[in-house]
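Progress note, sequence design subtask.
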């Protein structure tokens, strides 16, 4: 049997040449009069096709394409060609035939149809981006810079905007995310948990962000975020490549939370767009925004913002920006566009002409900022325990903050006065490094700076060399560094890779596998901090030297947070597995302990309420959610989940008060998801709100549809709009909207089935009001069939994770049955216009 992989290199090249010759003679000569991109692209494909086609079925599958992209052996033009194919196959704008060599040739040489990609152009873009990567170091300039970053064509502004804000806060903080492992992989230490990724291949570089010759750290970051997003979804929903996971869009708030490990808060700007907002209310909201901007800037918390459909020239629609600064005197915000582009307005800067932008940086008055952007996401000070690490975290390591530092048992001293033990009254910064670790070399200037600044104040900096691939390289390395590396240097007793008692007693004991890793030892000999030295703040050093830092207190809080995160994860996992009774125990334990963090307590209450609701304990679930909405009033979904529970508990008066309060709080939101559930809350029962509020709820429902992208939960948003139209007495409109909702279903999980049932029940009610009894009963029957055959039963053991979508289907079902079965209408007379 023919096997290309067993052939000699000469025979492979000979067969490839014959293949190219055949393809050249098999098409008209005029076709060859193509651009160099056409020729280069297809030549790269044809040269490598047989190698990439692992199963030899003459067609490249998604798996084969991804495997080739992850193969570091594919470089240059071959990598750019793979990137072009990947971009084309990933896009929903194109319809691709099977990727046979002949089909690829046709796509490359024929004029593209509207639903087909221009592969040579994609190839040119990818090859240009790849050619710009002239430096494969992490940070070619020593530290990350904003002015070198250019967002690629993956639509991952939501990943880059929070990162840009962090670079502005402290570029060393970004550098501290990366450490190199002995196996060559890179450990990226996010606040939400670490991930490990391989260095980017040429094909990956050809698809991700550009960095203007300033290193590949930005591409490592994107790949790591992709790993995070993959790790947070079920295996069947994961993308084949990490970078695919960031090409699907997302929330800058969620990325900010994982990047920092902190919860985030959103402040929306719909008050600036809503005509019904009074001047006084608008001014009050602007003042509130200014206070939040000033506080976040003063406390150096990250900020990011986003647009929807701006009309100002130069402002990108549906795009995330970093908020870098707030100038209270000028009342302006400084923003950064991840595209890194420049723009010159044609006229005076402002809403009509746009703003001067250089390398993505622009300054906008706050009063105009709120008119073109949808809102700001603010980092909070509080940890987000709901974050789940993308990789299993080993908490079994024995060396932690607050523990006494291990005994000092190094090998030989290479530089500086030897240290035999940690003397009381002095602080020590022990950094583990190796000559082969680029991230270790990046940290040297900062460590030298700390040594020079604090050596007379009691800080001793020690560079502990370990895990060397060639221990003989250390002496010439130190000699070459000279005055750039003046702190003490010690070498392991066994400095080779994987050996050495210092690395074992410190790094391995602390669960650290990447270099550099540093340990700050306080003046009592306890560990005050562990991490990449680039992330060590000088305020902490000063507190340790002053004796005001309490490592034991920090250790206790760390342990509390670690236990809380573990218990929360345990409860979440058990609930996901359907083990609801077992899931309650860790939550009860968390809620029984003293906790001054109201937002965190609200997270515990919400998860317990979900479990209680799944087992039809409406009153208890409602009590937990009512308390959660008081503790964390900005969490809109908690308000929504409380809605059907109040109805099922028979607390109709409380439900109506709840509708009014939710509409007042969230009715001005520009986020389509918030608008959708706010409107739906107010529409589940007839006459839940007054006429004026009903008009507002209908307008909110309409905005949820208008703000949504195609396919973005559109069936839910159309159903909500149709329900609003029915409540307003616009029965014909309601039917037409529900029919649109029915047509927009792309898949039918349980929640979508509940929405489909909702639509049938509303159509049945509308048909009844239009005195079309046959059609009304038919729609009712369709809805009943879904509820009775495909949705969980109210009396069952578990309503499932989508209980908050299932309960409204039962609520609307009851209304439809009571209306249609109890009061049959006669044919012919329309009841259009009667509000319900």
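Output:
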């Amino acid at each position: 049997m023919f096997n290309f992989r067993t052939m000699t290199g000469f025979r492979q090249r000979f067969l490839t040449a014959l293949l190219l010759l055949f393809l050249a003679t098999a098409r008209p000569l005029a076709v060859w009069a193509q651009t160099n991109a056409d020729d280069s692209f297809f030549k790269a494909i044809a040269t490598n096709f047989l190698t990439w086609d692992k199963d030899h079925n003459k067609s490249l599958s998604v798996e084969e394409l991804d495997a080739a992209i992850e193969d570091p052996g594919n470089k240059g033009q071959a990598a750019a060609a793979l990137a072009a194919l990947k971009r084309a196959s990933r896009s929903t704008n194109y319809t691709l035939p099977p990727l046979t060599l002949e089909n690829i040739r046709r796509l490359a040489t024929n004029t593209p149809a509207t639903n087909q990609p221009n592969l040579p152009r994609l190839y040119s873009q990818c090859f240009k981006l790849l050619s710009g990567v002239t430096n494969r170091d992490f940070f070619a300039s020593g530290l990350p810079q904003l002015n070198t970053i250019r967002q690629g064509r993956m639509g991952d502004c939501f990943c880059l905007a929070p990162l840009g804000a962090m670079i502005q806060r402290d570029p060393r903080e970004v550098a501290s995310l990366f450490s190199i492992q002995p196996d060559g992989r890179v450990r990226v230490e996010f606040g939400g948990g670490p991930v490990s990724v391989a260095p980017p291949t040429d094909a990956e570089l050809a698809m991700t962000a550009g960095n203007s010759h300033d290193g590949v750290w930005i591409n490592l970051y994107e790949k790591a975020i992709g790993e995070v997003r993959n790790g947070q979804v079920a295996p069947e929903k994961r993308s084949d490549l990490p970078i695919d996971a960031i090409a699907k869009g997302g929330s800058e708030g969620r990325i900010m939370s994982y990047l920092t490990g902190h919860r985030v808060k959103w402040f929306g700007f719909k008050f600036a767009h809503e005509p019904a907002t009074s001047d006084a209310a608008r001014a009050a909201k602007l003042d509130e925004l200014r206070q939040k901007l000033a506080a976040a800037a003063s406390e150096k918390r990250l900020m990011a913002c986003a647009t929807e459909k701006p009309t100002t020239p130069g402002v990108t629609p549906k795009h995330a920006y970093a908020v870098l600064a707030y100038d209270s005197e000028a009342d302006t915000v400084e923003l950064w566009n991840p595209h890194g582009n420049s723009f010159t307005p044609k006229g005076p800067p402002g809403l009509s002409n746009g703003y001067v932008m250089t390398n993505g940086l622009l300054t906008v008055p706050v009063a105009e900022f709120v008119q073109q952007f949808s809102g700001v996401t603010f980092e909070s000070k509080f940890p987000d325990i709901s974050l789940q690490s993308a990789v299993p975290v080993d908490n079994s390591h024995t060396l932690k903050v607050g523990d006494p530092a291990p005994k000092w048992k190094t090998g030989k001293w290479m530089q500086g006065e030897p240290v035999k033990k940690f003397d009381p009254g002095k602080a020590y910064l022990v950094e583990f490094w190796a000559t082969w670790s680029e991230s270790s070399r990046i940290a040297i200037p900062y460590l030298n700076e700390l040594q020079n600044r604090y050596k007379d104040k009691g800080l001793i900096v020690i560079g502990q060399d370990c895990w060397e691939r060639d221990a003989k390289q250390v002496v010439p390395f130190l000699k070459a560094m000279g005055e750039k590396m003046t702190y003490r240097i010690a070498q392991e007793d066994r400095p080779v890779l994987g050996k050495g008692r210092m690395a074992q007693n410190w790094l391995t004991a602390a669960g650290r596998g990447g270099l550099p890793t540093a340990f700050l030892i306080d003046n009592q000999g306890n560990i005050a901090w562990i991490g990449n030295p680039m992330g060590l703040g000088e305020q902490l050093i000063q507190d340790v030297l002053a004796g005001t830092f309490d490592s034991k207190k920090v250790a206790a809080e760390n342990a509390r947070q670690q236990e809380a995160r573990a218990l929360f994860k345990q409860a979440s996992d058990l609930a996901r597995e359907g083990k609801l009774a077992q899931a309650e125990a860790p939550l009860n334990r968390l809620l029984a302990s003293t906790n001054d963090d109201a937002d965190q307590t609200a997270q515990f209450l919400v998860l317990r309420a979900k479990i209680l609701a799944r087992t039809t304990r409406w009153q208890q679930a409602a009590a937990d959610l009512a308390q959660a909405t008081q503790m964390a009033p900005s969490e809109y979904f908690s308000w929504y989940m409380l809605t059907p529970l109040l109805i099922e508990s028979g607390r109709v008066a409380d439900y109506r008060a709840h509708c009014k309060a939710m509409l007042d709080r969230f009715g001005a939101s520009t986020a389509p998801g918030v608008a959708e559930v706010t409107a739906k809350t107010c529409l589940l029962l007839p006459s839940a709100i007054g006429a004026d509020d009903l008009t507002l709820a209908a307008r909110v429902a309409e905005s949820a549809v208008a703000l949504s992208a195609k396919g973005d939960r559109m069936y839910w948003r159309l159903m909500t709009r149709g329900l609003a139209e029915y409540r307003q007495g616009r029965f014909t409109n309601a039917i037409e909207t529900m029919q649109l909702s029915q047509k927009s279903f792309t898949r039918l999980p349980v929640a979508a089935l509940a929405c489909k049932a909702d639509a049938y029940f509303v159509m049945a009610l509308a048909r009844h009001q239009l005195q079309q009894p046959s059609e009304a009963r038919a729609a009712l029957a369709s809805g009943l069939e879904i509820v009775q055959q495909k949705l969980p039963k109210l009396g069952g053991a578990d309503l499932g994770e989508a209980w908050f979508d299932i309960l409204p289907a039962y609520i609307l079902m009851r209304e439809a049955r009571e209306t249609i079965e109890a009061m049959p209408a006669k044919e012919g007379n329309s009841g259009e216009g009667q509000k319900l």
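The longest helix spans residues 551-576. Work on this subtask will continue into the next period as scheduled.
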